[in-house]
Specification:
The structure holds 2 protein chains of 2 kinds. In chain A, about 75% of the residues lie in helices and about 0% in strands. Chain A has helices at about 1-15, 20-35, 35-45, 50-55, 60-90, 95-105, 110-125, 130-135, 140-155, 155-170, 170-180, 185-215, 215-220, 225-235, 240-265, 285-315, 325-355, 360-370, 370-375, 375-390, 400-425, 430-435, 440-470, 475-480, 485-495, 500-525. Chain B folds into 2 domains: about 35-160 and about 285-340, D-Maltodextrin-Binding Protein, domain 2 (3-Layer(aba) Sandwich); about 160-285 and about 345-365, 3-Layer(aba) Sandwich (D-Maltodextrin-Binding Protein, domain 2). In chain B, about 55% of the residues are buried. The chains are: A mainly alpha, B alpha/beta. Chain A: InterPro entries: MetI-like, MetI-like_sf.
Chain lengths: ~525, ~375
């Protein structure tokens, strides 16, 4: 009876029928936002006058401007690289498109702090290239150096989301526009762009939040941004000040999330056959391939070559402390797989609801899950150190539960965004059809919707997997005592100049992540068949 | 069917891995303090340096938070584990700042029995927060007064001096000033000098300068370094030393062992260290240990472990492996660096290093972060 009534509620009330999902989404949003309580509580401990002084100081203003500039520059550049790459790898007759797609997506698997190091030791002043070529190279550092490095290692977010949208959009629309005498540019502006705009916005949002929360790269480049100030206050053992600065960072994030929610508002995207007519590149295919190849060489081949050199030459001191064990790679993978599974389980209700419902609350809950991505890992890590040691001492630093939770808090939006986008693209009529065939709502979801959004779920899971493999600060703070992973070994060996021991785990990290990236791309391709 | 099987097998494998991770963890946390007494299990340690042979056998499991890097401390842990079959160390590593804020956040709930860190400022902070336990009398008596807490709540394990690292292609040691203030004024160092403001020993150095020379002089030094000398501010000691070795920078203020690591790998690297004389620039600082106070801890085992650290073999380890100075009279420094008598570091109560606030405010105001 009860289920019958529930059923009626679902069927009759349309949007309102999603109320139980709303409750579930709300609980998930609350759970992943819970570490913010700790930030607020610590920030409240700052003496108000002192806090005000800190927040409005010239220095805070300066780093705020730098951070915003960094975020804006990285985001714009990522769009300028990511969107054209997505177009040429989906809509043109570029030879070996699959290969170039993998090349264009791969930089995401390289942790940007390692990328920065490799990049500068290769191309920078006094780098390898300078000693090979014998000519002076530019000094890559400061603000623009930071912008360059973060862009090179995060633009794939834009590339991947845009590519997915292009693949699932009905390409025959463009042909229709062309027959109506719209030129190519006009057709792109009026037909293609509006369809892929939410995807570009979604990818750019991840880039923007990554750029503002990254610590390693700006620190390496000696650029002072919000995260450096937060880290500095941690170092000065002023956790309260660090929390206050984190709140300011969160305020900026809130604005970005609002902005993106407006730009990325989606008309229900249509899906259809992606095999419309292709743009013929002609001789342009050579510079195009050359461009992607140089990007791949700079971002992937160079770091991998540098790790290879460390390994073969035995660069850095010898020690027994950083010997590699296979178990470290397994630990990294188990953690990343679990984080991906839990993130997908959390992201499904949140992403599905926010795509299906017009309710403001649904949208709010979805936005809340992004907050963790914008907060530096050390802040989330320390919040969970407090919660764990105070209330969960029986698992604290003993099991991986809290660590996996930290990863989910940090990386959930990558799954939410992908799932939301794929739900938006499911044709409503299919679900109506299922309903007329007397399928229950659950059955419709299981047999119609879920198979259709599966590629989005997998894509989200793979992104969570990739970023978890790279995560360092929360891992160091929350991993069970005595446990080692690939990144903790890289951190230990690299930080103490024992480079040869960092090389092997770094290569394995890139290999595992690279394979998972190929799974992601194949998945999206096969979805088209 | 095939896929279902595979999926199940995969999930099963995952469950096993999680299980083993969790079980391994739980087994580690169980276990009582193997000893009943905080005092010596066999011989007491003395300033004349006793041997490991005379100390009580270590047994059980000891959980250590270490802000010293693995290469500088793990060989000692390994040697002890090898020597005592029933003894195991659960060691946890992180950057010094992250680890200290974690420990303070955990308070008495910390799973660690013992805290092992890079510089006395952090030890003094743990003491100030009431998390350290007074050390056993024989340990307090064995260590030189200058190298431990005057209330006996922490002790140094090894000592080191802040140094000037320089590129030997660009400078001879004789050309370099032995007064830290000249490094902020001499135009030769403009654009080619660096420091690392995020390290514990750097903060200690600033506190020592405020104590010894006054706030005004310290503020001048900091602002001259930032504004006149355009000092590069590094975030990593290795990166800083490497910049000197490859000629990107020429002079770097920091700990001497970073240069040591580079020369250890490449004896021809053009980097060497020199010291200032009797000023904060050659501040003597210790790495050291505090036994943590709280429920479910193993203070007696931690105490006997600490005895091993300040016994002869422990002290010789620091001299041999890390090129550091011993904290016990009975062990001599042997190595390439000048002896402490030659360097003549400032006399300084290391406990004063716990009050970071004035130094932090000054650095924040002058923009050296």
């Amino acid at each position: 009876m009860a289920s019958n009534r529930l059923q009626k509620l679902f069927d009759a009330a349309g949007q309102n029928s999603l109320s139980w999902l709303l409750v579930l989404s709300g609980l998930i949003a609350l759970l992943v936002a819970s570490p913010l309580l700790w930030i607020g509580q610590r920030a409240a401990q700052v003496e108000p006058a002192r806090g005000f002084e800190l927040m409005v100081s010239a220095r805070t203003a300066e780093i705020l401007v730098t951070s915003l500039g960094l975020m804006a520059s990285v985001t714009i550049l990522s769009m300028l690289i990511g969107v054209p790459l997505a177009i040429v790898t989906t809509r043109t007759d570029l030879p070996y498109r699959r290969f170039w797609t993998v090349v264009a997506a791969l930089p995401l698997v390289i942790p940007s702090y390692i990328g920065a190091f490799a990049f500068v030791s290769a191309f920078g002043e006094h780098g390898e290239l300078e000693s090979v070529l014998g000519m002076a190279m530019p000094n890559i550092q400061g603000f623009w150096g930071t912008v360059l490095i973060i862009t090179l290692y995060t633009y794939p977010y834009v590339f991947l989301t845009t590519r997915a949208a292009l693949l699932s959009m009905d390409a025959s629309l463009v042909d229709a526009a062309r027959t109506l005498n719209a030129d190519r540019f006009e057709a792109f502006r009026r037909v293609t762009f509006p369809q892929i705009r939410p995807a570009i916005a979604a990818g750019s949002l991840l880039v923007a939040l990554y750029a503002i929360s990254d610590f390693g790269t700006p620190a390496f480049m000696q650029t002072e941004v919000f995260t450096s100030a937060i880290y500095w206050e941690y170092g000065a053992i002023n956790v309260e000040y660090a929390a206050l600065l984190s709140l300011q960072l969160l305020a900026v994030t809130g604005l970005v999330l609002l902005l993106e929610a407006r730009v990325g508002r989606d008309e229900d995207a249509s899906s259809g056959d992606s095999r419309g007519s292709q743009i013929r590149l002609g001789t342009w295919k050579w510079p195009t391939m050359g461009g992607i190849a140089s990007l791949g060489i700079v971002t992937i081949v160079v770091p991998v070559a540098i790790f290879g050199v460390w390994l073969l030459r035995g660069t850095g001191g010898a020690t027994t402390a950083y010997a590699f064990e296979l178990e470290y790679a397994l630990n990294s993978m188990v953690l990343a797989v679990l984080a991906a599974l839990v993130a997908c389980a959390f992201a499904l209700p949140v992403g599905y609801l926010s795509a299906r419902s017009d309710s403001l609350l649904a949208r709010l809950f979805e936005r809340v899950t992004y907050v963790g991505f914008a907060v530096p890992g050390i802040v989330i890590g320390l919040a969970l150190v407090f919660f764990g040691s105070s209330y969960l001492s029986f698992i604290y630093r003993e099991s991986i539960v809290l660590l996996v939770f930290a990863y989910v808090v940090r990386f959930l939006p990558q799954a939410v965004g992908n799932i939301r986008t794929s739900v938006l693209q499911v044709d409503d009529q299919l679900q109506e059809a299922a309903k007329t065939l007397n399928a229950s709502r659950g059955e419709t979801f299981r047999r119609v919707t879920l198979p259709l959004i599966a590629p989005g779920v997998v894509a989200g899971g793979v992104l969570v997997f990739l970023t978890t493999m790279k995560e360092l600060p929360a891992t160091l703070m929350l991993q069970p005592i005595g446990m080692e992973t690939l990144v903790t070994l890289i951190w230990g060996a690299h930080g103490t100049a024992h480079y040869r021991y960092a090389a092997l785990p770094a290569l394995i990290l890139v290999l595992i992540s690279g394979l998972s990236m190929i799974i992601l791309l194949r998945q999206e391709d096969s979805d088209l068949q | 069917m095939g896929t279902a099987m595979n999926r199940r097998r995969f999930l099963g494998a995952t469950a096993v891995s999680i299980g083993s991770l969790t079980v391994a963890g739980c087994m580690g946390s169980s276990g009582e303090d193997p000893f009943d007494d905080y005092g010596p299990q066999a011989a007491a340690v003395e300033s004349s340096a006793v041997s490991w042979d005379d100390l009580g056998d270590l047994e059980g499991e000891l959980t250590i938070y270490s802000a010293r890097s693995q290469d500088q401390i793990q060989p000692l842990f390994d040697a002890l584990e090898e020597r005592y079959d029933d003894f195991e160390i659960r060691d946890d590593y992180d950057d010094e700042d992250d680890q200290l804020v974690s420990l303070l956040e955990e308070g008495e709930n910390s799973p660690a029995d013992l805290y092992y860190t890079q510089s006395s400022g952090e030890l003094a902070r743990v003491k100030a927060e009431g998390l350290a336990r007074e050390l056993p009398e024989d340990v307090i008596g064995a260590v030189d007064d200058n190298y431990r807490d005057s209330d006996g709540q922490w002790t140094g394990a090894s000592g080191r001096v802040r140094a000037i690292q320089y590129n030997t292609d660009e400078f001879d040691a004789e050309e370099l000033p032995d007064d830290i203030f000249e490094y902020a004024e001499d135009e030769r160092f403009q654009d080619i000098i660096s420091t690392r403001p995020n390290s514990g020993t750097f903060r200690s150095f600033i506190i020592a300068m405020i104590e010894a020379e006054g706030e005004e002089a310290t503020r001048d030094w900091v602002s001259s370094m930032v504004d006149d000398q355009n000092a590069t501010l590094y975030n990593s000691g290795s990166q800083q030393a490497e910049a000197v070795a490859n000629g990107e920078q020429q002079v770097a203020l920091g700990n001497q062992y970073y240069a040591g690591r580079i020369v250890g790998n490449d004896p021809d690297a053009p980097i060497d260290v020199t010291f200032t004389n009797n000023d904060p620039g050659c501040l003597f600082n210790v790495s050291g240990v505090a036994i943590l106070d709280g429920e479910n801890k193993k203070p007696n085992l931690a105490a006997e472990f600490t005895r091993h650290v300040i016994a002869a073999e422990g002290q010789e380890f620091f001299v041999d492996t890390n090129g550091e100075y011993p904290v016990i009279d009975g062990v001599d420094y042997v190595g390439e660096l000048p002896t402490l008598e030659e360097i003549n570091p400032l006399e300084f109560d290391l406990n004063q290093l716990s009050d970071l606030e004035p130094a932090n405010d000054l650095l924040r105001e002058e923009g050296m972060m």
